[in-house]
Known about the structure:
alpha/beta
Amino acid sequence: MAYHQKISSASFGPDFLWGVAIAAAQNEGAYNADGRGLSIWDSFSRRPGKIKGGAKPFEACDFYYRYKDDLMLVKALGFTVFRFSISWSRILPEGMGRINKEGIAFYHKLIDECLELGLIPYVTLYHWDLPLELQKNGGWTSHQMLKWFTRFVTVCAEEFGDKVKNWIILNEPMGFTSLGYMLGMHAPGKTGLSNFLPAVHNAALCQAEGGRIIRSLVLKANIGTTFSFSEVMPYTQREEDMLAAKRVDAMLNRLFIEPVLGRGYPHVENFPLLDKLHLHNKAWKYIERMKFNFDFIGLQNYFSITVKHNPLIPYLHASEVKATTRKAPHTDMGWEINADSFYRVIKRVWLYGGVKEILITESGAFFKDELVNGVVNDEKRIDYFQQYITAMLKAKKEGVNVNGYFAWTLTDNFEWSEGYKARFGLIHLDCKTQLRTIKNSGYWFRDFLKTY
Ligand code: BGC
């Protein structure tokens, strides 16, 4: 069966990278196999009420044992890039010190298999699964974080640097610092500014330092890091809503990229939270150290957001006016679907200047899929991809150096605090039997990529 193609992958040229992305904590499972240490997600998921349905990442998609089959699926769908992350506690069970040889062996096998199949590995160093032992000593809030991260990155570079050339230092630092160290919704479940401010600073330092380590240890490395970008729109044109949008924008979109570009943390007038961030971390001393000349910036976009002034919300004084309330098109996560806004964020990142290349390192959507007689007819997801890929093409045609699109994600997986019900995969996962069924969106990609 051929799927209706509104656009063709040929329009992107032969060098454009089409990939699919996963993450260790969301896919691997095998949480205590072969000497792996625990991560903050293994322990956080045991806390009652933290994860929907009481779900745990212990088995996830069993990728640790099924990686060969999964990579065959990546290949069968026609992708040429496979983005995955390394589980820190699998290779350094205590986060520091002792190396777990079996963990290292797993990633060698995975990388070798990719290379054998002609899939280019893009390796994320940190996709949110800090070793639990490090969290016991403060995790991302600790002054020791840079030392711990240096050790981890060094081990990875020395072990895999001969085979892997494409490295991603952090996955969405705003995601794990805000959800994990401010709002308590993600592991390790910490809250408040006393956790958030140091976590942000340590992440900003690690993202640049990680880049420097890979540059010095890996010959011909292609180094990037990823950020989530979400266009922030004011609910009304009233001044207080416009200012609210400015504050939220600084937090969501500017906080981590501007230090990388050498501008330090952003400044917004009358926004004491940012002033505190500057002061608490003596940020002016670190402008140079937070800077790194990345080869590419990984742009990840899942929604645009509309906000209004709300004095009851601490620090930000802003709250979201949800897409569902506004009756705007949205995914089953309630996230606004707005491909024009995707186009605008791509342009905006490019117009910063100093960004050499943009890769869309994650893009995808959760819709409530139904598996009926072995078929998942996820038309909404197909439509989503068509709209977003078309928007990206528009930006490319206007001169933005955007050279890759990695769909999120391969199989349905452990969607953090949403558990297993929020399905983003191109492949349906039966969590009980581990059976994989390619969704129609997967077949859509296969046909889309074949047209080249
Ligand atoms: C994260 C993924 C996550 C996706 C959907 C991204 O921010 O990198 O791990 O599954 O969002 O929520």
